[in-house]
Amino acid sequence: MTKARRGIYAAAISPFNADGSLNTGKLVHYCQHLLGPGGCDGVAPTGTTGEGTSITMTDRLALPAAFSEAGIEKDRVIFGTGAPAAGDCVALTRAAMEAGYNSVLVLPTYYYKNVSDDGLYAYYANLVEKVGSDDLRVYLYHFPAMSATPLSTTLVTRLRADFGPIIAGLKDSTGDFAQSSAFVEATGGVAEDFDVYPSSEAMLWDGLAIGTAGIISGSTNAFGAKAQAARQAPEGPAREAALATVKAARALAGKYPLVAAMKTIEAWRSGDDDWLRMAPPLIPLTEAQKTALRADLAALDT
Q: Using CA atoms, how far apart are residues 172 and 109, in angstroms rounded to an integer?
């Protein structure tokens, strides 16, 4: 079994029912859109942008089977399975594996702070050992701004050395290109089959040049097609213009609470205001923010 294909990923937003439960069918349909006209090579559901930590275990455990039943290709999905409880992480990862999805994005256990590399190593080692499959592909999730639990290059290289291809890559959500570069340098990047994914499409081309695998971004929910068009554009003025548009789109997304902005844009695209629902403590955009976002989108496309 192979790992997830490389390229442009959307950290997919999640639709909720009126009772706060995950609307699984709508999420599956939405990810099919992202993998088609949405311009993405892959999707990463139930991550940070997908409000994964706010979704019940019951809903998260059922999701991979729904993706499989819909025929979504196994190498185009990286499910977020991180959880503070090591046993929950194992259960979520097993559910993905049982549905045929062997690539998972795993936050470190994130309640206790200032934990040692040895403690974090034990968390990931427990996952690998309890799942017990050589087909498993773990993508470490470095997002210290949210988790307050950074992953050191020393820890990453130790896990890779001990578990080999099972430790398949890493998502770096710092937004700091120097940090992504450090992970590539420490692991060898794609040249050594270790897939580092920065979190901004504005870094895509510089990242590919140093050995990253692509990007996993929240803003590609709305702008994946623009990023893909730029990636496919021939070198020269056309590519430069497309790159400028991608960077402008990413800067636009940064002006607003990202999850709420992406859900608002999807509500407008689909004509479905149910997309505006957020899981507490996150809240929708204000009317003033919506007005500003419409204007910014209009300016982006002129």
A: 16
Instruction: Please say whether the beta carbons of 172 and 210 come within 8 A.
Output: no
**Tokens 């590919």, located at residue:** 208
- Reply yes or no on whether the pLDDT at 5 is more than 70: yes
Contact 43, 12 (CB under 8 A): yes
Residue 1 confidence (pLDDT) above 70: no
**Correct CATH for 7-233 of 1.10.860.10, 3.30.930.10, 1.20.810.10, 3.20.20.70:** 3.20.20.70
HEC letters along the chain? CCCCCCEEEECCCCCECCCCCECHHHHHHHHHHHCCCCCCCEECCCCCCCCHHHCCHHHHHHHHHHHHHCCCCHHHECEECCCCCHHHHHHHHHHHHHCCCCEEEECCCCCCCCCCHHHHHHHHHHHHHHHCCCCCEEEEEECHHHHCCCCCHHHHHHHHHHHHHHEEEEEECCCCHHHHHHHHHHHCHHHHCCEEEECCHHHHHHHHHHCCCEEEECCHHHHHHHHHHHHHCCCCHHHHHHHHHHHHHHHHHCCCCHHHHHHHHHHHHHCCHHHHCCCCCCCCCCHHHHHHHHHHHHHHCC
**Can you tell me the distance from the alpha carbon of 289 to that of 22, in angstroms, rounded to the nearest whole number?**
25
Tokens of 121: 């190593």
Alpha-carbon gap, residue 231 to 209, rounded angstroms: 12
What digits encode the pLDDT tens for the residues 229-270? 999 999 899 989 999 999 999 999 999 999 999 999 999 999
Give the pTM: 0.96
Q: Using one digit for the tens of pLDDT, what is the confidence trace for 106-122?
A: 999 999 999 999 999 99
Token digits of residue 185: 């340098």
> Helix 153-163 and helix 117-131: axis angle, to 10°?
30
